[in-house]
Amino acid sequence: MAHPQAPHPSRTGPFRVLLPWLWAALLLVPALTIAAVAAAAPPDPAGSYSVHLASFRSADGAVKQVRELTRKGWPSFFRKTAVAGKGTWWRVYAG
Length: 95
Prior knowledge:
Helix content: 25-40%
Strand content: 15-25%
Radius of gyration: 16 Å
Largest sheet: 3 strands, antiparallel
Mean pLDDT: 74
Distance between the termini: 47 Å
Low-confidence stretches: none
Order of helices and strands: HHEHEE
Strand order of the largest sheet: 1-3-2
Number of helices: 3
Oligomer: single chain
């Protein structure tokens, strides 16, 4: 007898509610200038930490994500990173 597969996590729980809002925010929120976001200081390294949330091939995507997270009260920032064999990526962090 075959066992049914569990649904994909994006179709259940908090992801089901959060994912459409996240996509809408990324598409509808106007972008900040890269210079304005880059000027924001990353968190204080003494006793703090951050969580890597997303990676983007363009700075525009990272800027939009940081702006939305900041608007919602999450301290966030991005960093330009060279990934071997994959080129330049913009990584978004919160915390």
